[in-house]
Amino acid sequence: MGSILDFSTKNNHHFRIYITGDTMIFNDIKEIPKRYSEIDLILMHLGGTKVMGIMVTMDGKEGVKMLKIINARKAIPIHYNDYDVFS
Fold this sequence. Notes:
Elements: E1 3-8, E2 14-19, H1 31-35, E3 41-45, E4 50-51, E5 54-55, H2 60-70, E6 74-78
Parallel strand pairs: 2-3, 3-6
Antiparallel strand pairs: 1-2, 4-5
């Protein structure tokens, strides 16, 4: 699950954040920058979690691909060292 958060101030300054949630890159991810242009910040969950040897959340390499697709102005990696299953 990912989320888009839009903020604005009284003087119409807008700030948009995309929170990836625990996900992988799939074709529909390309729709995000089409629907939500000018993303200021992406918070990227980069655990690289594997279940039975299959990666189920993005790792660093997938995160770079995601960043190129979303084209946010800034990125902050999160949720990458919370548990032992993250790499």
